[in-house]
From TrEMBL:
It comes from the Eukaryota. InterPro entries: ACAD10-like, ACAD10_11_N, Aminoglycoside_PTrfase, HAD-like_sf, HAD-SF_hydro_IA, HAD-SF_ppase_IA/epoxid_hydro_N, HAD_sf, Kinase-like_dom_sf. The keyword Transmembrane does not apply. The keyword Transferase does not apply. Gene3D superfamilies: 3.90.1200.10, HAD superfamily/HAD-like (3.40.50.1000), Putative phosphatase, domain 2 (1.10.150.240). This is ACAD10. It comes from Cervus elaphus hippelaphus (European red deer).
Length: 504
């Protein structure tokens, strides 16, 4: 799990805004005044790839070096070593093969770090699906730019993969022009590659904006008369681009999208209900968007006149009897005693109801868990989904100022929350659903182990450590597996809240 990114205050603030839209009177989100709408002097926006649309090699290297016990900065030093004649630049001009590059680059990294460096591992990570997902904020910006009739392009110092294809994990339909150094035999900051991009766009330098994360590349573009933006962080870069273009590049409500066809709801009936409830006669139609997040229950943004609301509902189709109980979100549901035993039986039933095939590991847990219930349990308020991304942090200090997502809260054993919050400690960093920490050097990262975390909790609570820690961890994983099984079964029938139905 990339803890540093999760703890960045700007991202947490965005999550807060998306999750908790307040009932606002007389305001509209994103009510910023714009000078013009696509009619300004700029007609094309050119994007670098690594560091602008995708994570840069340097940012990928930072965490990889920690995980592989390589001195910090080794990869970046090797990338810039030798300048135009270094292995990286020769590789991006297709002057050497992937095999030759890895050999030469590995030797250089070893010289810099005074230790053996597994550059094959770094190259595999750099080109893996794990880190080659386009930044959503840039995808949204490109969509808005093209909607205004402006052109978009990619100008990248790129390379060939061992299969002979260039490394371009982007949707080419987003761009009018794609210029790759390995195909052209020339790379940034050589002025020729900028001129080539402008020529293919059919634009003058003064009509173009170029975004890159490296100073020399921007300096070369600026010398030709192209307006440049240095990308230190994505949000700042997008705001600067908005200022230059004169129109917004973000949707008025962050993290929303048009309602999926399978998740449509009767707008006319909803509008009539809200008019009666709110006592308003709006001049415009009801606005309805769907939030990107919310795997279990679809969540909608609703605007009627000056009222802004959030609507949650159960997904369509046949559902498990106790699943997706949105009533819990507005009804008190105090639990009885024997919380853990009840939870184990509940999730066994949920799993059985959504089972699609026999999984031996789940069968073993179904047999093992009821036989190893904790003998003693404390009863407190249990959150039910306690994890890092349900916490809101202070923007400047390492202080939790709010806990989100209380829909599963009840009275029960608090150790269930403690164990659930430690699941990342038992998952590898390459785990696709939730990257974990099991193969990370926690000491170097300054993160306590799961056992240390548990002991700290017991110390602060003034209670003796339980002997059943492994039970709580096993139950937490069983519960997650049961939830995922339900998600999978819903996807087979097209009832998933986020993804399209599974194809096979």
């Amino acid at each position: 799990m990339c803890l540093r990114r999760l703890l960045q205050s700007s991202q947490l603030q965005r999550a807060w805004r998306a999750a908790f839209l307040k009932h606002v009177q007389g305001r509209r989100l994103g009510a910023r005044r714009w000078t013009h709408s696509g009619g300004g002097p700029y007609r094309a926006v050119i994007f670098d790839m690594g560091g602008v649309l995708l994570p840069s090699p340097g940012s990928v290297a930072t965490e990889w070096e920690v995980q592989n016990h390589i001195p910090s900065g080794t990869i970046v030093k090797a990338l810039i070593s030798g300048g135009e004649n270094g292995p990286w630049m020769k590789f991006t001009r297709a002057e050497i093969t992937t095999e030759d590059f890895l050999q030469e680059f590995g030797r250089l990294c070893s010289e810099i770090s005074k230790t053996s460096v597994p550059v094959d591992s770094f190259f595999s990570l750099l080109t893996s699906e794990q880190v080659t997902k386009q930044f959503p904020v840039m995808t949204e910006a490109i969509t808005q730019i093209r909607a205004k009739g402006l052109q978009t392009a990619v100008l990248s110092n790129n390379f060939y993969l061992p299969n002979g294809k260039s490394f371009l994990p982007l949707d080419r339909k987003q761009f009018d022009v794609v210029v790759e150094s390995c195909l052209e035999g020339v790379c940034k900051p050589d002025p020729r590659i900028y001129k080539l991009c402008l020529e293919r766009l059919g634009r003058q330098p003064s009509e173009s904006i170029f975004l890159d994360d490296l100073g020399p590349n921007l300096k070369a573009a600026a010398s030709l008369g192209i307006h440049t933006i240095k990308v230190h962080d994505l949000e700042t870069a997008v705001k600067e681009l908005e200022t230059l273009l004169g129109f917004p590049l973000r949707m008025a409500v962050p993290n929303t999208r048009p309602v999926r066809k399978t998740m449509e709801i009767p707008k006319d009936a909803l509008e009539k209900y809200l008019k009666d409830l709110l006592g308003t006669q709006p001049t415009g139609p009801l606005e309805l968007l769907q939030f990107d997040h919310g795997q279990s229950n679809p969540t909608y943004y609703v605007k009627l006149a000056n009222h802004q609301l959030v609507l949650r509902k159960k997904p369509p189709g046949t559902l498990l009897p106790s699943a997706h109980a949105v009533e819990r979100e507005f009804s008190p549901t105090p639990g009885a005693r024997d919380y853990v035993a009840r939870q184990v039986q509940t999730w066994i039933k949920q799993y059985r109801a959504s089972e699609t095939s026999t999984i031996p590991a789940m069968e073993r847990l179904i047999e093992w868990l009821p036989l190893h219930l904790p003998r003693q349990q404390r009863t407190t308020v249990v959150h039910g989904d306690f994890r890092l991304d349900n916490l809101l942090f202070h923007p400047e200090t390492a202080e939790v100022v709010a806990v989100l997502d209380w829909e599963l809260s009840t009275l029960g054993d608090p150790l269930a929350d403690v164990a659930y919050n430690c699941l990342a400690h038992y998952l590898p960093s390459g785990f696709p659903i939730q990257p974990g920490l099991s193969d990370c050097d926690l000491t170097e990262l300054g993160i306590p182990t799961a056992e240390d975390y548990f002991r700290m909790y017991c110390l602060h609570m003034g209670i003796p450590p339980t002997e059943n820690w492994n039970f709580y961890v096993a139950f937490s994983f069983f519960r997650i597996a049961a939830i995922l099984q339900g998600v999978y079964k819903r996807s087979l029938t097209g009832n998933g809240s986020l993804r399209e139905p599974a194809s096979g």
